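Record minuted for everyone:
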Amino acid sequence: MSLPFIVNFATWNVCGLSDIDKQHTAGFDSERYGLDIVALQETKVRNFSETILQNHYKLFMFEQTTSVHGGLGFIISKRFIPYICSWTQISDRLVYLELKLPAKTANKPPCHVRIVNCYSPTLPRSIQNPAIIEQFYDELNVSVDVPSRFEVFVLGDFNAKLGKRTVSDKENGYEENMGKYGVGRRNENGERLLNFLISNKMFATNTAFKHSSRHITTRTGTIKDRKSKDGKRRYYSQIDYVLCKSRSKVLLQDSRAYAGSKLNASFYTDHKIVCARLDFSQRNKLYKKRHTPRTLR
């Protein structure tokens, strides 16, 4: 088995995954886009399950104790299954995997990686009950508290708009936390997410690369519009993110959304796949002192 130097981590709100055909379609979509680990939100499944899909990818879905409207899961590629060490569920809204990736040479230590999957409360719920969003970020802070040499990636539906980076953001040094290709205006949940990024020295990867707008926005919503033929008007937002440590930007090759999944065509989800591609062969650069730090814009 080849060592996984180029890896693809993704987040995807699937809007329900109890249907068997939908599960297999999600697996084939993951293979089609070359995704190694996909963090799933809104599976709407109550009980824990572990399934080998038709393409031999593995699907984990975790139990819910307080609701049936959320639910978390992972789809893991064939080549990554051997590197999974453990999983830990903190709550209905947060679970993480731990991986051990082999080094390029046998005499080097492996790379320890934690993959966090999270599903944040929506903005209306956060405003209505601030304790829910505070608990979510308390748990999220616990999940990223790892030894310094661990790599941490947070994949999730944050229901938060970081928005387009402003001049003020740049003056405040937020280039270390977000790129210049965000969309729209920051909302209250976006402020919470930005504070989390700052306090944990993390970076929103899918704000860092220039792509067409359809590959930057992550969700398609609708509002009533009497002037349109179907009485609805679509709007597009960026609320799903893949986060990495700020120091780990040297590993990033690309990060973007994919809008053409078979799952969306055959079933329904209003969210796109959001993926980050990383080159772990560049991991040695994480520990070398650099006179001029790399800045992704």
User: Anything to note?
Assistant: The radius of gyration is 19 Å. The longest strand covers residues 111-119. The helical segments are 20-32, 123-128, 130-143, 167-171, 188-200, 262-266. The chain is about 20% helix and 30% strand.
